């Protein structure tokens, strides 16, 4: 990672720190270290507002540099700052939504005179607008994601279950370079690589706040495929996350086993229409709630509102920022007045679940440009019959 | 899940609560809900010391029962307790090592009169001794894990890289029923399904505190396979985690591409000898440090201490408890005076890394019985030549 890029990212955070009169940040969560240091370490980035940042590293033991200090424990940090003549912060920012209660207090105690504030929202705000290098990573991810999806029909075999189909698609993604790991913000959110949903399993509510649910294969992971046979007349939605370089691309496509009932194609078209309409609206300055409300109006007019984003339990969003985690800012949801900005990257996923058939709809990843949007996951969006 | 089992698990926690004069626990982290409720929900288990536990559930919306309350937010919990005439706790336990700082404070604020303490160590202590049903889950996991490993030679192709080999093994594990998700305690620990290490990549230190490292494919996940070709004369260690029912079985086996240098077989035998010696020692009452020190003495006598558990960065443990997370209590490490107890389940993984060759050694999962130990991952432990 080139240093000017890291300096730019750190300075994006510093702008918000200055607005809130925060003297220094101590950053230690993996995705935030990846963002500010270009790699994951076991350690800390100490970033004063008006002085160069320093890295305090526990592991690995092969990282060196002028402003890199090897430590065994965070309690060594204040002494090193004193040795180097650096002032202690008056207001220190820690990752309050991400650090455990125990660890937050341990780190806050390093600077007992400082006022300690939660820096997570501020770092997430900085991360929500991507740099050119981050956007280039997303371009590469979108291409690889689409390439893997292009091979999906080749791994379908008659008589497969949803989970067997998922396993073959996971392999395609991994062979295309997907790292597999699926990073999510929020300690109670978890999924393996994504979900493959067919038939009525798509109607099953889950404990997780994803767009759709599914029973999963075991009560220990109640999300996604549950071993349902891929049967004639059912749709199957593939929503496997892409993580080809740390940046999570998001893409869903729908397949069918033979011909579906006509209303499935009608519902699918409604989702494509919603996508088309919203994408035509999106440019810097458009707010998230407006987009959400437009989608709800369209799906209501079309008569599918009871099946939109689930049935018995409906997700209350139609899109979300993506980045180093699958759920970044902003969320395209009701009451979110946040405006889109150039450089934001987001997934838009209008989906309808039809009882007796399964899920239809689409999901793509997009970048907000100066004039509108650019699609990252370029690939056909029609329902593909796996039997043809 | 049968209720007597859940009652037993909850009462195991209550015993420790009583010792520490804790009136009630509010549990909301996924693995702890899985342990106490038999399934993952988005919600809370409120567990008084001397009254039946209650479930407050946000998602999914299809869980019902006499002591189940549907809520939108945790702030509703105190009002429901008042309505039902339940006293507020004087000392409340929250999951302080697992909840974020923000969420811990939000929950603590529900009971402003209560003294709030960190319950994570206590819950982990309860979880470290498994029930018969948990042990039965581990038995099934060990069998499935060994069955998948039995197919590993069949997916080897000449000219493969470590990551291509890993992808095929991941698929074997998934087809055998592995849920894929790899749960770890500690917010900075992460890995995909496990690691496949060959040649000098096994010498590369990582930021994560696993037994071995590896550079990984990308700075965003610096662990495990890095695209190294599986070459003649190199060993390859497969350490893919098993999660077939929520319980993480742990198993490593070593393969070779053709014949290895003699010292590889000698080092491998040292690891097998260490395993044999320690397993003969293990029974309830043996402490972890004694086991660790015995291993260090043996590997030192054999002349491999500089290569034990890594080279430039050596892991300071040789085994660890396993359960709903891969790293449960106890840790078999220096200065750990904790004694093993009947019902504990652990992984033992003496491993040696040889420059120019790769890793050798073994890892199995074991249950502490009344008299000794029982092996869960029954499978040949010799180095298997993939070319033969």
From TrEMBL, chains A, B:
Q: Which InterPro entries match?
A: Creatin/AminoP/Spt16_N, Creatinase/aminopeptidase-like, Creatinase_N, Pept_M24, Peptidase_M24B
Q: Keywords, A to Z?
A: Aminopeptidase, Hydrolase, Protease
Claim: Transmembrane helix is one of the keywords in the record = no
Give the molecular function GO annotations. aminopeptidase activity
Which intervals hold domain Creatinase N-terminal? 9-129
Query: Is the Thylakoid keyword given for this protein?
Result: no
Transmembrane stretches, start-end: none
EC numbers for this chain: 3.4.11.-
Broad enzyme group: hydrolase
Domain named Peptidase M24 is located at 137-369
Q: Which Gene3D superfamilies match?
A: Creatinase/methionine aminopeptidase superfamily (3.90.230.10), Creatinase/prolidase N-terminal domain (3.40.350.10)
Q: Which PANTHER family match?
A: AMINOPEPTIDASE, XAA-PRO AMINOPEPTIDASE P-RELATED
What's the protein name? Aminopeptidase YpdF
């Amino acid at each position: 990672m080139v240093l000017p890029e890291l300096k730019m990212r750190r300075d994006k955070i510093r702008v918000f720190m200055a607005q809130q009169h925060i003297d220094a940040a101590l950053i230690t969560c993996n995705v935030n270290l990846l963002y500010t240091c270009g790699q994951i370490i076991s350690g800390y980035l100490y970033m004063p507002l008006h002085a160069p940042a320093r890295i305090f590293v526990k592991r690995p033991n092969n990282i060196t540099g002028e402003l890199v200090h090897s430590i065994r424990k965070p309690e060594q940090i204040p002494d090193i700052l004193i040795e180097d003549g650096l002032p202690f912060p008056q207001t220190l920012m820690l990752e309050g939504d991400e650090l455990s209660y125990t660890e937050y207090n341990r780190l806050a105690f390093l600077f007992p005179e400082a006022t300690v504030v939660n820096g997570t929202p501020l770092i997430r705000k900085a991360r929500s607008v991507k740099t050119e290098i981050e956007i280039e990573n997303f371009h590469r991810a979108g291409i690889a994601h689409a390439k893997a999806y292009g091979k999906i029909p080749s791994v379908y075999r008659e008589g497969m279950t949803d989970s067997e189909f998922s396993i073959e698609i996971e392999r395609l993604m991994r062979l295309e370079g997907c790292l597999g790991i699926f990073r999510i913000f929020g300690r109670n959110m978890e999924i393996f690589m994504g979900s493959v949903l067919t038939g009525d399993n798509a109607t099953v509510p889950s404990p997780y706040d994803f767009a759709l649910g599914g029973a999963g294969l075991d009560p220990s992971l109640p999300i996604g495929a549950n071993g349902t046979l891929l049967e004639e007349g059912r749709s199957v939605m593939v929503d496997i996350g892409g993580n080809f370089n740390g940046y999570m691309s998001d893409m869903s496509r729908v397949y069918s086993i033979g011909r579906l009932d006509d209303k499935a194609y009608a519902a699918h078209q409604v989702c494509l229409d919603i996508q088309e309409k919203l994408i035509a609206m999106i440019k810097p300055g458009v707010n998230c709630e407006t987009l959400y409300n437009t989608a709800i109006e369209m799906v209501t007019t079309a008569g599918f509102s009871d099946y939109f984003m689930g049935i018995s339990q409906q997700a209350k969003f139609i899109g979300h920022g993506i980045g180093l985690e699958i759920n970044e800012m902003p969320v395209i949801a009701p009451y979110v007045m946040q405006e889109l900005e150039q450089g934001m990257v987001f997934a838009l996923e209008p989906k309808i679940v039809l009882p007796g058939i399964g899920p239809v709809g689409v999901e793509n990843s997009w970048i907000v440009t100066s004039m509108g949007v650019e699609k990252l996951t370029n690939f056909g969006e029609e329902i593909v019959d796996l039997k043809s």
